[in-house]
Amino acid sequence: DGEVFRYYADGEWRASASGKSVAIVNPTTRQTQYRVQACTQEEVNKVMESAKVAQKAWARTPLWKRAELLHKAAAILKEHKAPIAECLVKEIAKPAKDAVSEVVRSGDLVSYTAEEGVRILGEGKLLVSDSFPGNERNKYCLSSKIPLGVVLAIPPFNYPVNLAVSKIGPALIAGNALVLKPPTQGAVAALHMVHCFHLAGFPKGLINCVTGKGSEIGDFLTMHPGVNCISFTGGDTGIAISKKAGMVPLQMELGGKDACIVLEDADLDLVAANIVKGGFSYSGQRCTAVKVVLIMESIADAVVQKVNAKLAKLKVGPPEDDSDITPVVTESSANFIEGLVMDAKEKGATFCQEYRREGNLIWPLLLDHVRPDMRIAWEEPFGPVLPVIRINSAEEGIHHCNASNFGLQGCIFTRDINKAILISDAMETGTVQINSAPARGPDHFPFQGLKDSGIGSQGITNSINMMTKVKSTVINLP
Ligand code: G3H
Hints:
By secondary structure, the chain is an alpha/beta fold. The chain contains 14 helices and 25 strands. α4 packs parallel to α5 and α5 packs across α14.
């Protein structure tokens, strides 16, 4: 019935006093794979207290020492890539190779964060007073960046390790303490990642990981007075959190409906390859996945044909076999995807493949001739199903993209760079990729969503800055 894993608090692995656990259901077998502790609110209170104490000492730890520990954790993380990847395979059905890449990418991210941190936090600013009218040169203002305190990190199921370290690394290098609440699916991979930080020798209480039911500790954590910053990646919950949270900086990366605008002069093979990679990798369960193709009518048939040929070659099956398309994370997610597909069918979309589902496994499906009255034109399936809308002008594509309540990324395919820049400027999204599918990485690039896709900007440098405050000391001369 699944091994029960302990939570991590004050440098120790603990069983919850609740005596209860939360089941993690393997998306492929649909059986309980693991269990994690159902932490109580009282346990959350204790974690917050120890994090607060540990943070004070950590903030006084020299920057180079903080960086050294992060480099050590990064190396240990990479050494543990196989067992962590195995958890990702079992908990979230991530294809085996991608699961290993997620851990390696995470180690690289932590190392890069340590390097970036010593550079940007090692710099301060000096201002002199006489540049402002009426002042003599008798005031010197020294400013530098100081930590916020305790950072609450809430990553999503699709990158439980990578989107945890993208919060943990910047928080720690900047001198903050960390409370991690991993997603239920992916919690064991996250606990194993935390174990790597434990082995690196970080001080007790600095990093904590609480597990449990959102209904029991979710709001309690996000509204906790001990939290000084929230970094969240996920869905609509982020909007609810931002309404309830206190006066603390928020970093939110939420959903996306990334549009792929294809113009007549595009390299059609490049387009097809990117639609398949962008729309179907990890079965479409990426916030940056291509979620709607907006293609000029004159080239649509040719591209649809090329995409279909590639989809036919994708391997569909369990993640252990390194299949390209694996079961989606939960049964309710599969049901939601099916709902969107059926709505499009009733309203007359053309199915390029037969719709097929077994349990949580949904075969890749391209839906052609999708129209704006279909839900799938606007909603995010988070699955291996992709709508194609035929357009007659670039403006039509831009209009559809901007009519979405999301604004994460988008992409344009054309050989005309001038046109591409103009379209990019017109698209209301945080990032636009020219001639490639949307993607968050490389992980030091800025990453941000507009509208319902989030607030704040991520990427290593932006996250470090976001998890600090400016502190000034003014020297007044007689
Ligand atoms: O799911 C949201 C992630 O931030 C997307 O990251 O572009 O590396 O897949 P990715």
